[in-house]
Design a protein that fits this description.
The protein is of the alpha+beta class. The chain has a single domain, classed as Beta-lactamase, CATH 3.40.710. The protein contains nine helices and eight strands. The protein has helices at about 15-30, 55-60, 80-85, 90-95, 110-125, 130-140, 170-180, 195-200, 255-270, and strands at about 10, 150, 165, 185, 190, 225-230, 235-240, 245. The strands form three sheets. It has a three-stranded antiparallel β-sheet, covered by helices on one side. Strand 6 (about 225-230) and strand 7 form a beta hairpin. Helix 1 runs parallel beside helix 5 (about 110-125). The longest helix is centred in the N-terminal third of the chain and has 16 residues, at about 15-30. It is globular. The two termini are about 30 Å apart.
């Protein structure tokens, strides 16, 4: 389609945030991370001096951590550009400051997801996030093609978990199917149903909002959810209608994609 074939690897951009959430859930299922209520300083103690001792993993998942982070994609001196082009994410994370008390207000920032990335890396104790992705998703889901996750530097690099997972549309669709089936893949529970439901349910407590949960967008009140990238990349899932839609592209075009997905879901129900 328009020069692309099924085997073409395409960038996820911020759809990677939702995949990072899945891997956090896997780590909790395994006991590598105790719970979402743990303070992030249990894994990143360097942030204690910056006042992060009351910021929990849940705050970071829900984007209510209160971190000071400039998400502008056109400001070359902003945090987002520094995280995207920088060569030492671990160092940049240690410099993060708080803007407000955690649990008070939703603010979408890529810094939250990169915090999750460092938490995940340290919980894996020597394994890379990419190898964990291979173990927990790519192998059990029998992905059809390889994938890559961009890192900040060649030697001892950290995955850019806020973006930059590169895979095929078909394999992204398998991730959607896994969540449509509440973490079950052909009879095998890959990730706990509890985590899938907790990640995608409506929760407006502690500063959270009705349209976002654990790194997943909630476009309506129909139990649907989606991963979204900045240039119109989507994994849309509606479990009650048994729908998974993947849309990749270079821009949004003139279509409100989330509205279209909701409309298609309603049409299927008739």
């Amino acid at each position: 389609f328009r020069g692309y074939e099924k085997q073409n690897i395409v960038p996820s951009f911020s759809m990677a945030k939702s995949v990072t959430s899945i891997l956090i859930g896997c780590a909790i299922d395994e006991g590598l991370i105790k719970s979402v209520d743990e303070p992030i300083t249990n894994y990143i103690p360097e942030l204690t001096k910056n006042g992060f001792d009351k910021v929990t993993i849940k705050h970071v998942l829900q984007m209510t951590s209160g971190i000071r982070f400039n998400e502008s994609y056109i400001n070359p001196f902003g945090h987002a550009a520094g995280f995207y082009y920088g060569l030492n994410l671990r160092k940049k994370i240690k410099r993060l400051k708080l803007k407000r008390e955690p649990g008070k207000k939703f603010q979408y920032t890529s810094g939250n997801t990169q915090l999750l990335g460092l938490i995940l890396e340290r919980s894996l104790k020597g394994r890379t996030i990419t190898s964990y992705l291979q173990e927990k998703l790519w192998t059990p889901l029998e992905m059809e093609y390889g994938a890559s996750w961009s890192i900040d530097k060649e030697e001892n690099g950290l995955e850019k978990t806020f973006c930059c997972l590169n895979a095929t549309a078909r394999d992204f669709a398998k991730i959607g199917r896994l969540y449509k089936n509440k973490g079950n893949w052909n009879g095998k529970q890959i990730i706990s149903q509890k985590w899938v439901e907790e990640s995608t349910k409506l929760d407006t407590t502690d500063g959270s909002v009705s349209y976002y949960q654990y790194q997943w967008w909630l476009p309506s009140n129909d139990g649907d959810f989606m991963a979204e990238g900045i240039l119109g990349q989507f994994i849309y899932v509606n479990p009650s209608k048994s729908i998974v839609i993947v849309r990749m592209g270079k821009n949004y075009g003139r279509i409100n994609w989330s509205d279209l997905f909701i409309l298609l879901s309603k049409y299927k129900s008739k």
